[in-house]
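Quick one, tokens below:
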């Protein structure tokens, strides 16, 4: 079986769930080979959990300043791993960084790039949902090693007890004179909530929430579920909630088990980022709101009257 390289998304201590999903996707094409980029010791910490979710090998590209650079170390490590293993494909999470890594890698390899895959079959045919969800497209790379970004939540992680990953050290090759470096770091609020793209439940607020203060009801419901908070672009543009929580075409793509839309009309650009959620619940005071056409469960009413009752109900369980 050929290797399938998977770029590992991690925080230094633990592997993000998206990576486990990518390992499951990779198994459809070959043997998943995890590529870990980070300071020395990172891969050793992550190796066991990577093996448990199907990685048959781990390529560790480690150097002391790894966290100081943006995407270049990952692109370098993947390029090197491709030249050494001739993989069937490279899978990268469709996150903000992942998209940039994938585009740069495909350009360096002169290879085809497919973005935002929601499915993948054993012959390498990728399913994408495009134009804000209007079309489902199936495509296949015909030139070079396919580079594929995979939408978080699109695949179910598969735990494989007894797995053991082989270990390879890849020499890092970052050129500090040509690589973007992080000079200032700001911690963004996320609290104890799970990451937006890996949460099983996402509760999002829109312009209907009415202001930053109004997001408290959104946060309370998210916390009752142990979920993440999202926001529509209108809410973000109005300054109600920070941009990193935006869901949609120009924000994050999410596919949780449950997506709750509070005061969100359901513009096509918002749907593009959440319509593959397994179950969708919407609360909107307008019975004509398009989100209610997509929702599995719709409540027509004032979100400030409905949401606290929902929160109370969920918290009581
Ligand atoms: P609105 O459309 O104003 O809807 C607010 C809703 O709240 C209404 O349906 C109203 O009935 C309801 N409401 C009001 N008060 C209450 C209440 N008390 N209780 C219950 N319901 C209430 N949008 C995104 O979200 N993500 C994107 O990534 C994105 N990218 C875009 C990219 C481009 C190129 C463009 C052109 C647009 C993009 N948009 C995106 C914007 C998108 O078109 C919409 O403008 C936006 O999604 C609307 O956000 P909203 O639903 O919160 O606001």
């Amino acid at each position: 079986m050929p290797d399938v390289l998977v770029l590992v998304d991690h925080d230094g201590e633990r592997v993000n769930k998206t990576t486990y999903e990518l390992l499951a996707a990779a198994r459809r094409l070959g043997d998943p080979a995890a590529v870990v980029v980070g300071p020395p010791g990172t891969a050793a910490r992550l190796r066991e959990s990577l093996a448990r979710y199907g990685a048959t090998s781990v390529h560790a590209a480690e150097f002391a300043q790894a966290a100081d650079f943006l995407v270049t170390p990952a692109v370098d490590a993947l390029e090197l791993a491709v030249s050494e293993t001739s993989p069937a494909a490279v899978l990268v999470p469709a996150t903000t960084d992942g998209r940039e890594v994938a585009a740069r890698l495909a350009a360096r390899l002169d290879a085809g790039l497919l973005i935002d895959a929601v499915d993948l079959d054993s012959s390498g045919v990728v399913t994408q949902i495009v134009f804000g969800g209007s079309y489902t497209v199936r495509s296949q790379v015909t030139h070079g090693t396919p580079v594929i970004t995979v939408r978080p939540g699109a695949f179910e992680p598969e735990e494989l007890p007894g797995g053991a990953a082989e270990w390879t050290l890849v020499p890092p090759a970052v050129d500090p004179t040509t690589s973007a470096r992080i000079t200032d770091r700001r911690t963004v609020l996320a609290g104890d909530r799970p990451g937006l793209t890996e949460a099983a439940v996402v509760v999002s607020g829109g312009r209907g929430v009415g202001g930053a203060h109004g997001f408290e009801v959104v946060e309370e419901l998210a916390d009752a579920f142990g979920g993440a908070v999202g926001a529509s672009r209108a809410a973000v543009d109005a300054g109600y909630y920070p941009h990193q929580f935006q869901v949609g075409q120009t924000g994050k793509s999410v596919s949780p088990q449950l997506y709750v839309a509070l005061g969100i009309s359901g513009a096509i650009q918002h749907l593009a980022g959440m319509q593959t959620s397994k179950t969708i619940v919407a609360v909107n005071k307008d019975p004509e709101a398009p989100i209610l056409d997509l929702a599995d469960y719709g409540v027509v009413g004032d979100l400030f009257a409905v949401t606290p009752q929902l929160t109370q109900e969920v918290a009581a369980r």
